[in-house]
Amino acid sequence: MPTTAPAAAHSLGEVTASDSTLRRFLHGLPGVDAVGLEARAASLGTRSIKTTAKAYAIDLAISMVDLTTLEGADTAGKVRALGAKAVRPDPTDRTSPSTAAVCVYPDMVATAKEAVAGSSVKVASVATAFPAGRAALAVKLADVRDAVAAGADEIDMVIDRGAFLAGNYMKVYDEIVAVKEASGAARLKVIFETGELSTYDNIRRASWLGMLAGADFIKTSTGKVAVNATPANTLLMLEAVRDFRAQTGIQVGVKPAGGIRTSKDAIKFLVIVNETAGEDWLDNHWFRFGASSLLNDLLMQRQKLATGRYSGPDYVTVD
Amino acid sequence: MASTSASASVFEYAPAPESRSVVDIAPSYGLFIDGEFTEAADGKVFKTVSPSTEEVLSEIAQAGEADVDRAVKAARRAFEKWSALPGSERAKYLFRIARIIQERSRELAVLETLDNGKPIKETRDADLPLVAAHFFYYAGWADKLDHAGFGANPQPLGVAGQVIPWNFPLLMLAWKIAPALATGNTVVLKPAETTPLSALFFADICRQAGLPKGVVNILPGYGDSGAALVAHPDVNKVAFTGSTAVGKAIARQVAGTTKKVTLELGGKGANIVFDDAPIDQAVEGIVTGIFFNQGQVCCAGSRLLVQESIQDELLDSLKRRLSTLRLGDPLDKNTDIGAINSAEQLSRITTLVEQGEAEGAERWSPSCELPSSGYWFAPTLFTNVTQAHTIARDEIFGPVLSVLTFRTPEEAVAKANNSQYGLSAGIWTEKGSRILAVASKLRAGVIWSNTFNKFDPTSPFGGYKESGYGREGGRHGLEAYLDV
Predict the structure, then answer these.
(1) I need a labelling partner for B119 at 20 to 30 A (CA). Which of A147, A196, B168, B269 fits?
(2) What's the mean pLDDT in B452-463?
(3) Does some domain include residue B6?
(4) CB contacts < 8 A (A, B)
(5) Do A36 and B284 touch (CB under 8 A)?
(6) Band of the pLDDT at A10, cuts 50, 70, 90?
(7) Cβ B278–A274 below 8 Å, yes or no?
(8) Do B121 and B103 reside in the same domain of the chain?
């Protein structure tokens, strides 16, 4: 598996030398025509994925799920159930792949680690005062260190959208760099909350900003606002990771999160991955779905393909 | 026949063919005259084949001079009552036709794909929705002609003789027939010899809609049938879409007569990409501009004019994108590039491409396996092209893009306008003021900005210079069929 080189080594090092160079670089990125972008995403959505291609896509999608519970009401019992499901999504069919990870709040990391122990399933933890990110940097870093100490393999941080929208890109950059350092060996996913950044131009700038700062993954959303992952914003971020690798040789992953509920939707996203960034990203090391209810729909579709009939919600586990 | 794509390997899309069984093609079809299907007077027939497989689809009656005369007489007889109907009554028929087209759109899309060779994705998502939209749009005008800006109670011309091409068979039929009927004319229409089927299915739709006999007559045939129709003394209006050479011949033929003419001819559209363009969307627009319908589009963006400062970046992106195009079975829902319409057209494209190479332009195509039967041409890009190259001047009417460069907006405009044609152009920039400044200087009938090949029945379409004259679509499209 390709390894991620340290951010400082790439050819864009000078871009982050100062606030003004960073601003000039981000504002110099090509603009995004919203109509054209959405039309392209919609046209990829009309691909017809059938039979063997569908079976491949469903298993791939299952293996890319970050099975998520991020509720105030989360308990150890709930997290254990989620972990068991991530390891063995379909108790009636052992051939089903495990999900990529479970995604929990920092205080649930230890419990989640136990629940998935001995499996390939990673534990991801949201940190940095998720979802708003409105806390002092020291608090955010402590949050990250807690999660890492408890055994988190991956950290999902949120950027300071206020600073980004105010044009204070260097503050956002420095914060990501600090969180990356605090994450240590854990892979860092940087959440932009695209619904709050509002424009596609902003999403492209945030993508490059995150990658320059050393993100291992760029992620659309927290799932806590009105507009989360969409085919168009995911396509745009896939263009960004594709272009970033072309320029620096560094591959960065993409994670759409929130609002992807059906197999049909997930397959559309995989088509977008395939035809935008390419097959190098068709692997759960480089692409994830942040989702909870999606998994059961994938499992029902998987059973349908295997048996030729729909089983119904009583034949998949409710957690 | 499997879809092929250079990039597909890990995630190989399984074949997803649209069902052929939704359309029932009869072994033979007659001419549609005065509400009835009839044989040609001299009994002549020709075969129509599916360009993707060379399979014979049906045998079609071929109209001769006697049939043209019969059809024009039928249209003349029908004209009196049809033109006297209140506009709101004519509108009812047009609305009915539009709804039937929507109801039968899947069948018609499959039919069009079989007969023309273009991908089902296009007939399903572009051709058929636009066909229905055209009839809906002109149905709306039928009772509002007093308010169209041509004075009170504008009068129809009479019998319209219409000759349409093979690239958008049903859509070109709609562009011709909908405004003609809305304004109270009756029509005799000749579809192209390689794509007669959808027009004959349309004849059936006219019967289904209860359209009075003789209002619409369909005469399949070759160029001589079209010439006979244009020459008929009782035709009041000639509407032609096709090649510039034939358009010129028609103009000569009708000179000195009272026939009103509109011609929609060739083009060599310039797609201008400035250095501040939204690059990823520009790449999509370039692809849509030249590879939509295998480039067999009169308004295709067949000349890419790219600012030198972004040439390398843009061409890299474009080549990468072309590598993802899926060429193959047009009925497969995942096919992006279908078949070339005929052996004749394929040979014309091949000749011009060879000439491009011989003149020193650099040819590139993505690796792409062509099916063994049928008429196919891989998406092709030429770089190092100058204004002097034949492939920069002549209309190729195929999936072939000529890439030229410019340094300043003035140079872009000068090069774009340096063409015998003037049908379409595209402008790609994030700067609104530049769009307006450049568009006002381009001599082209249709100018798209930050998009390409977008069509809408409300928008007039037509050309400058050798791209023809007259406008189709929108309020302007009414004028061609009114005595004003």
Answers:
(1) B269
(2) 97
(3) no
(4) 74
(5) yes
(6) low
(7) no
(8) yes
Radius of gyration of chain A from its Cα atoms, rounded to whole angstroms: 19
Report in angstroms the alpha-carbon separations of B23 from A131, B20, B205, B339, B462: 54, 6, 14, 20, 33
Q: Which two tokens stand for residue B230?
A: 């244009």
Q: Does B13 fall in a domain?
A: no
Q: How many angstroms separate the CA of residue B285 from the nearest CA in chain A? A: 8
- Answer whether residue B184 shows pLDDT above 80: yes
Q: What integer is the mean pLDDT of A255-264?
A: 97
Please check whether residues B126 and B206 belong to one and the same domain.
Answer: yes
Say whether both B235 and B277 belong to one domain: no
Question: Residues B360, B322: one domain?
Answer: yes
B279–chain A Cβ distance below 8 A for any pair: yes
* B241 and B103 part of one domain: yes
State CA A112 to chain mean position distance: 19
Q: Closest Cα to residue A294, out of A225, A206, A228, A211?
A: A228
Q: Which two tokens stand for residue B241?
A: 């879409």
In this structure, are B293 and B440 located in the same domain?
yes
- Compute the nearest-CA separation of B289 from chain A (Å): 13
Give residue-wise pLDDT tens across range B61-119: 999 999 999 999 999 999 999 999 999 999 999 999 999 999 999 999 999 999 999 99
| Cα B125 from Cα B113, distance rounded (Å) | 12
Residue A282 to residue B7, Cβ atoms within 8 A: no
Would you call A240 an interface residue with chain B, using a CB distance cutoff of 8 Å?
no
A239 touches chain B (CB under 8 A): yes
Is the CB of residue A153 less than 8 Å from the CB of residue A124?
A: yes
Does some domain include residue B129? yes
pLDDT tens per residue, range A150-164: 999 999 999 999 999
B112, B122, B264, B466: the catalytic one is: B264
Catalytic position from the list B18, B122, B206, B298: B298
Strand order from edge to edge, sheet including B237-241: B36-38, B31-33, B216-218, B186-190, B159-163, B237-241, B260-264, B468-469
pLDDT of residue B4: 44
Quick check: A47 contacting B, CB < 8 Å?
A: yes
Specify whether the CB–CB gap between A93 and A306 falls below 8 A. yes
Which runs of E-coded beta strand occur in B183-307? 186-190, 216-218, 237-241, 260-264, 270-273, 303-307
Task: Specify the pLDDT at position A5.
Answer: 44
Report H helices in B2-141.
Answer: 65-84, 87-103, 105-116, 120-122, 128-141
Catalytic residues of A: 156, 219, 255
For residue B310, the chain A residue with the least C-alpha distance is A30
Compare all CA atoms of chain A with the CA of B325 and give the residue at the minimum distance. Answer: A275
Query: Is the minimum CB–CB distance between A28 and chain B shorter than 8 Å?
Result: no
Same domain, B438 and B474: no
Token pair 């930050």 is found at B450
Contact (CB<8Å) A279/B9: yes
Closest CA to B17 of B126, B124, B131: B124
pLDDT surpassing 50 at residue B7: no
Residues 6+ positions from B28 with CB-CB distance below 8 Å: B45, B58, B59, B60, B61
| B16 inside 8 A of chain A by CB | yes
B11 touching A (Cβ < 8 Å): yes
Q: Is B264 a catalytic residue?
A: yes
Measure A30 CA to nearest chain B CA, in Å: 5
Asked if residue B203 lies in contact with residue B218, where contact means CB atoms within 8 angstroms, the answer is: yes
Q: Which structural domains are found in chain A, ordered by start?
A: 15-309 (3.20.20.70)
Whether B222 and B299 share a structural domain:
no
Q: Give dist(CA B55, CA B208) in Å, integer.
A: 29
Q: Which domain holds residue B446?
A: 270-458
